């Protein structure tokens, strides 16, 4: 399965009343749909409780247990928020959104994300992200990566690939802080994403590569 390792940020300015101009710094495409949770299997006419198979919670029960997140849509359907690992991910989402002044515009069904800073004529700023709802270490890393763009400052670090690197370091450091595995899928995504970003920058004529990115030159 191929993955799109790009991440995106946007700066949006409103210099004219009622008008907005989008300045896109990087696209985010190529959705990868996360696998759904497989239902429990019941053999013959025996009930799930009789054969020792855990009965899958109803969608209504799952929705009632979903965390209430300020400035964010409800988590997607079908997530078992009673699982210990999921309760841990839910708590991290709540903590990160309480730490930093930003909102979640949409929970994506794909392994992609975007951070958006909207600056209005009167000086108001609206910081938002789109990301997959964390149900695994990789999805949590992508969520934290987009949070990192806002924490570090959109467009502050140049070249663009350096900002991507710093956002990934922010995400990986937070995973370690929360005791979440940073190896396996997370490490592979980080490496491939950075190799893509560095190669793209060099194709576009980057003359001086920051020392932190030398390891990602293919």
- Please give the oligomerization state of what you see: single chain
Number of domains: 1
Q: What is the H-and-E element order?
A: EEHHEEEHHH
Shape: globular
Q: Count the DSSP helices.
A: 5
Segments where pLDDT lies below 50 for 5+ residues?
13-51
Proportion of helical residues: 25-40%
Radius of gyration over alpha carbons?
20 Å
Q: Helices, strands, pairings?
A:
Blueprint: E1 8-16, E2 19-24, H1 59-65, H2 84-99, E3 103-108, E4 114-120, E5 125-132, H3 137-152, H4 160-177, H5 185-203
Parallel strand pairs: 1-4, 3-5
Antiparallel strand pairs: 1-2, 4-5
What's the gist of this structure?
The chain is α/β, with parallel strands linked by helices. Helices cover 35% and strands 17% of the residues.
3D structure, described in words:
The protein contains five helices and five strands, in the order ββααβββααα. Helix 3 (137-152) packs across helix 4 and helix 4 runs antiparallel to helix 5. The protein is globular, with a radius of gyration of 20 Å. A hairpin with a 4-residue loop joins strand 4 (114-120) and strand 5 (125-132). The protein has 218 residues and is of the alpha/beta class. A five-stranded mixed beta sheet has the order 2-1-4-5-3, covered by helices on one side. It has one domain (8-32, 62-204). It has helices at residues 59-65, 84-99, 137-152, 160-177, 185-203, and strands spanning 8-16, 19-24, 103-108, 114-120, 125-132.
């Amino acid at each position: 399965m191929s993955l799109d390792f790009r991440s995106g940020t946007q700066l949006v300015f409103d210099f004219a009343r009622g008008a907005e101009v989008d300045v896109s710094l990087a696209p985010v495409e190529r959705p990868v749909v996360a696998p759904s949770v497989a239902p429990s299997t019941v053999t013959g006419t025996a009930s799930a409780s009789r054969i020792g198979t855990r009965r899958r919670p109803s969608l209504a029960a799952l929705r009632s247990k979903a965390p209430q997140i300020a400035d964010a849509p409800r988590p997607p359907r079908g997530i078992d928020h009673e699982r210990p690992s999921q309760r841990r991910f839910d708590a991290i989402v709540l903590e990160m959104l309480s730490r930093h002044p930003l909102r979640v515009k949409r929970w994506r069904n794909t392994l992609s994300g975007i951070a958006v800073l909207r600056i209005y004529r009167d000086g108001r700023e609206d910081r938002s992200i789109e990301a997959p709802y964390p149900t695994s270490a990789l999805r949590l890393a992508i969520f934290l990566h987009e949070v990192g763009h806002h924490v570090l400052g959109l467009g502050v670090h140049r070249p663009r690939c350096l900002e991507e690197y710093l956002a990934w370091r922010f995400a990986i450091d937070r995973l370690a802080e929360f005791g979440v595995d940073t190896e396996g899928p997370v490490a592979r995504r980080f490496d491939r994403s950075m190799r893509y970003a560095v190669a793209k920058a060099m194709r576009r004529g980057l003359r001086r590569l920051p020392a932190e990115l030398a390891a990602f030159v293919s």
